[in-house]
Amino acid sequence: INKFFTSMIIYFVWVLNSYNGKNTATSKKVFYTINVIFDFNNYALNILIFL
User: Fold this and answer.
1) How far is CA 9 from CA 5, 35, 41, 43, 49, in A?
2) How many Cβ atoms sit within 10 Å of the Cβ of residue 24?
3) What is residue 26's predicted lDDT score, i.e. its pLDDT?
4) d(CA 13, CA 25)
5) How far apart are CA 39 and CA 12, in angstroms?
6) How far apart are CA 45 and CA 11, in angstroms?
7) For an engineered disulfide with 7, which of 16, 39, 41, 46 has Cβ 3.0 to 4.6 Å away?
8) pLDDT digit string (tens) for 1-44?
C-alpha cells in the first residue's frame, strides 16, 4: 500500500510537470527523472503483485 501511495504521488507530480513549462531544460530533466522513477515504481509494483 505504501509503494502504491508513493507511485500515485509521483504520477501526480509527473502529470503536473507535464502541464507546467516543459520547454526549459530544467523541467525536462525533472520530467524525465520523474518518468524513470515512476517506471521503476511501476516495475516494482508488478513484481510485488506477482510475488
Assistant:
1) 6, 12, 11, 16, 19
2) 10
3) 67
4) 17
5) 13
6) 14
7) 41
8) 577 777 777 777 777 766 665 556 666 677 677 777 777 777 77
